[in-house]
Amino acid sequence: MTGADASHDPTRRSWIKGADDAGGDFPIQNLPFGAFSVAGGPVHIGVAIGRQILDLTVLERQGLLRPGGDAEVFRSGILNPFMALPPRIWTGTRHRIADLLDRNNAPPARSQCRLRQAVGV
Fold first, then answer.
1. b/e for 39-72, b at 16 or more Cβ within 10 A?
2. Which residues lie below 8 Å from residue 37, measured CB to CB, with a gap of 6+?
3. Is the separation of the CB atoms in 54 and 114 below 8 Å?
4. CB of 105 within 8 A of CB of 113?
5. Looking at residue 121, what is its pLDDT?
6. Residue 6 has pLDDT above 90, yes or no
7. Which residues lie below 8 Å from residue 51, measured CB to CB, with a gap of 6+?
8. At 60, is the secondary structure helix, strand, or coil?
């Protein structure tokens, strides 16, 4: 394996359609964080995967992702509360997200992942 850690393993694949396409900008090894909204609705935090967005705000509410422990760091629609956490939490969160998106993940967890179509990616 090359790269920083297991979440950057170049052989890792996602269950998200199109995420593993050659030349794609957002494979499982590159999960950029950002804020988004749908049709002028509330702002959520997500990561790009393939041509979609994994909604971290919803995953946090469901209890599948809790980087802040009891504090919901993605609730506000800005990344500041998450970025205020120690770097080890950022790394752990990235690992958890990659595990949720990994093709070897159990189907029940997959069904709880809220995906949004990315616009302009």
1. eeeeebbbbbbbbbbbbbbbbbeeebbbbbeeee
2. 43, 44, 77
3. yes
4. no
5. 47
6. no
7. 18, 24, 26, 117, 118, 121
8. helix
Which residue has tokens 């979440």?
7
- The answer to whether the beta carbons of residues 10 and 4 sit under 8 Å apart is no
Q: What is the pLDDT of residues 27-64, one digit of tens each?
A: 999 999 999 988 888 999 999 999 889 999 999 988 88
Q: Output the CA torsion sign for 46, 49, 53, 57.
A: negative
State the Cα–Cα distance between residues 9 and 68, nearest whole angstrom: 26
Residue with tokens 């090894």: 29
Spatial distance between the Cα atoms of 32 and 47, rounded to a whole number of angstroms: 5
Residue showing tokens 């995420």? 19
d(CA 16, CA 52): 8
Within 27-86, residue ranges assigned H as helices are 56-62, 80-83
Beta carbons within 10 angstroms of residue 7's beta carbon? 20
